[in-house]
Amino acid sequence: MHSASPHVVTLTARPTRIPPWYAEVEEHSERVASLADRLAQYYGLGHEQRQLIVWAARWHDYGKLALGPGLVNAPRPLSNAEWALMRRHPRIGATYCQRMGAPMAAVRIIDAHHERWDGRGYGEGLARYAIPLGAQIIALADVFDAVTTDRPYRRALSVGAAFDLLRSEREHAFHPDLLDLALNIFSMSAPRLCAMA
């Protein structure tokens, strides 16, 4: 039986008071955590690694709290200036979580979850295997859940369209082998998504 990491277990509570407007972000993060855990499990990661990834997934968007509802829940596509602010949320969230005593491995995952396989993401401009595996896993779960969920400025994509989008980013945004596994794992969520349509 695997032993849990006590340090991670003690960080399962909310880091701070969460305002009502953040509820949709929190729900998204829980879904991302569930998808990321399944992907990490099928990838063969151990219990403690999975626990770390799940914790990081739950708080990967925590930095959006600093941006406010007007930006996070904007009912329209963001302007270039607004996107510049939005791109700061991984670093803000990672800094918050570091200050509250999160493991540095989790902090690095949160900081890197918008990096891309081709190095054209945001954060440090990391590429390929320099990106923490947990961040790569969360990125796939994050994009899949985001595009298959209604947003204030657009309707959700169908599962098929979401898969086409992910495939189009093969070796651009995503690790190719991890992407193939993710498509198989995420297909198990198709009945839930179709039922919600």
UniProtKB/TrEMBL annotation:
InterPro entries found in the cross-reference section: Cyclic_di-GMP/3'3'-cGAMP_PDE (IPR052020), HD/PDEase_dom (IPR003607), HD_GYP_dom (IPR037522), HDIG_dom (IPR006675)
Positions of the HD-GYP domain: 3-197
A family per Pfam: HD_5
Matches recorded under PROSITE patterns: HD_GYP
CDD domains xrefs: HDc
SUPFAM superfamilies, sorted: HD-domain/PDEase-like
Protein's recorded name: HD domain-containing protein
UniProt organism field: Candidatus Viridilinea halotolerans
